[in-house]
Amino acid sequence: MSLDRIDPAFRALPLTALADAALTRARELGAQHADLRVERISTQTISLRDGSVTGVSDDVEVGLAVRVIVDGVWGFASHGELTPQRAAATAERAVQVARTLAPVAVERVERADEPVHAGAVWVSAYTTDPFEVPTRDKVGLLGEWSQRLLAADGVDHVQASVMQVRECKFYADLTGTSTTQQRVRVAPSFTATAVDRASGGFETMSSLSPPVGRGWEYLLGDGWDWDGELAVVPELLAEKVKSPSVQAGAYDLVIDPTNLWLTIHESVGHATEYDRAIGYEAAYAGTSFATPDQLGTLRYGSDLMHVTGDRTVEHGLATVGFDDDGVATGEWDLVRDGVLVGYQLDRTFAPRLGLERSNGCAFADSPHHVPIQRMANVSLQPDPVRDTTTDELIAGVERGIYVVGDKSWSIDMQRYNFQFTGQRFFSIVGGKLAGQLRDVAYQATTTDFWGSMDAVGGPSTWVLHGAMNCGKAQPGQVAAVSHGAPSARFRGVNVLNTQEEGR
Length: 503
Known about the structure:
alpha+beta; nine-stranded mixed beta sheet; seven-stranded mixed beta sheet; 24 strands; globular
């Protein structure tokens, strides 16, 4: 790829001079490994309520970070001043940190090998950089969406927003690897609210649009049918207001990818992070039931369950060319034929699992944070033989519920016992949809839930969804990640009535 697509403000930074200064100084001070990251992260968020602007925020974070390994111990330091002198001084501080920690380090760092990637350039898949679109045009589009919804009967309030991020990153290390990358992501959304003035209650209906690794073209219809969704949301909301509350019990579920992605994220994505599985990461959201002693034997789900980790899928939020360890990214299996077969890991954890290479999962959300092992795009694969449709999955259900859209959730500290709600629920009677329901949540253990999956949709049902704000570590870091899923059918899942449970 060409450097021409990289933000000119980032290209203008003295990247090579910073790398030379930091790496040379680290080597002089005895570091066996050293790497430099320079980052420029631009973020804009625009919010409207009932067509009026409630907030426009812009932020640019710039800085450099130096990591070193001295006699098997990590050292890290960062700074906001981007000069060669400051880069060298930051390397000195990183070496001092490593030497200070050496007496209390309980183990020595070993890292998997990686080929040298010299002068590599990677840019994510987008057409229009959202930061080149005037803010007034963005506000105008969100305002138009809001007015279209407010003009519909039964819609009392509308919230609309868009978040956009442009992340520029330069990496260089002592082996000779140097990478320059830029990725763009956007997260537009709207929510319509209907108020029941007699009871004081309300119901909401939000866009099902996923956040994506695309540019402003996404909001203009490239990748999502905004006009179609804006047209149907008021009708669906009006029906939801009048819909009956679910009767708790066991149901067959057909789960849309707009809901299933979150279940994948919590019960598979986090559970197959290797640092959680060995107890290294525990303080923030717990560890994992899927421990390495069960690798190759743990029955995670039915034979239809094939889940991959992928840092390369087009428009994925966690898609990059190279991770923050300088590793070229790829795709690999986490669960195959229903059995746990892999983990997400970085260069430090790969040798512990006996792997020769990392699968590229090191990431830091800021130049002032140390890279940690973060989630790839973790996805359930569709039916490889037949392009089964969602309607066909529904046709195979006598009594059940079709679940659409994500909402609230909870899961235990082992990623095992969970409960998920959704945004839209449709009763299934005799293989056909029979109107909306309210107050639905499904509850299960991870292995029982995935073990009950008896059919998956084909490629035409597969959607890449995700989140911009997956949290991990202390100090906390936030990462964007996508999860692809087809529609899928699950038999005999326990369904709760959330209103009854809340009493």
